Amino acid sequence: MTVPSIATVTIISLPLSAKAEKVCQVTDPTGTPLNVRSSPNGRITNTLRNGREVYIQKIETDEKGRLWALIGGYYQGQYKVWGWVFREFISCYNR
């Protein structure tokens, strides 16, 4: 007798972080758009202006002890993970 195999499918609905209680905004004090990078201290891939609503996906520390946040947010109705920014330039609040 053979036992039929059963496939398990897990569906994850993104963005998980958008359901988080904390909503954040870009608050770069330099007066220029905030650089978004491919990795902590990596290549610049984008910039975001102050006031942009973002969600923190992950936080890491680089070799100099600086905190970096992997952020995402909505753009044209779709959620995107943008990349890494200095954590100190993101201000969060409870929704």
Quick summary:
By secondary structure, this protein is mainly beta. 0% of the residues lie in helices and 48% in strands. The chain has a domain of 61 residues.
Termini separation comes to 56 Å
Overall spatial form: globular
Number of helices: 0
| Alpha-beta content class | mainly beta
Mean pLDDT: 82
How many beta-strand segments? 7
Low-confidence stretches: 3-21
Main sheet attributes: strand count, strand direction, barrel closure: 5 strands, antiparallel
**Spatial extent as radius of gyration:** 17 Å
Task: Explain the overall architecture.
There is one protein chain. This protein is mainly β and 95 residues long. It has a domain at 34-94. It has no helices and 7 strands. The protein has strands at residues 22-26, 34-37, 44-48, 53-61, 67-75, 78-86, 90-94. Strands 6-5-4-1-7 form a 5-stranded antiparallel β-sheet, with no helix packed on it. A hairpin with a 2-residue loop joins strand 5 and strand 6. The protein is globular and about 35 Å long. Mean pLDDT is 82; it is low at 3-21.
Keywords summarizing the entry:
95 residues, mainly beta, 5-stranded antiparallel beta sheet, two-stranded antiparallel ribbon
Blueprint of the fold:
Elements: E1 22-26, E2 34-37, E3 44-48, E4 53-61, E5 67-75, E6 78-86, E7 90-94
Antiparallel strand pairs: 1-4, 1-7, 2-3, 4-5, 5-6
